Amino acid sequence: MSSSGNTHLWILVVGLSSVVVALVTAMLKTSSGSSAAEATMAAGAAFATAFGLGLGILGTL
Q1: Residues 50, 37, 45: CA angle, nearest 5 degrees
Q2: What is the pLDDT of residues 49-59, one digit of tens each?
Q3: Nearest to residue 40, comparing CAs of 30, 31, 49?
Q4: Which of 5, 37, 41, 42 would you call most buried, defined as having the most Cβ atoms within 10 angstroms of its Cβ?
């Protein structure tokens, strides 16, 4: 990654894509009949995993 502005932009992309992953996870969990608390916990775990993977990939570049 060459410039600081470019790095900030990629971190924003990783964050927003992690939010999308969390929302899809929450929708799938609630559609399967889980409670709101279970869906929130699953969505939080999905967000943390996706964000961590994204930052790990950015760190290797």
Answers
A1: 15
A2: 999 999 999 99
A3: 30
A4: 42
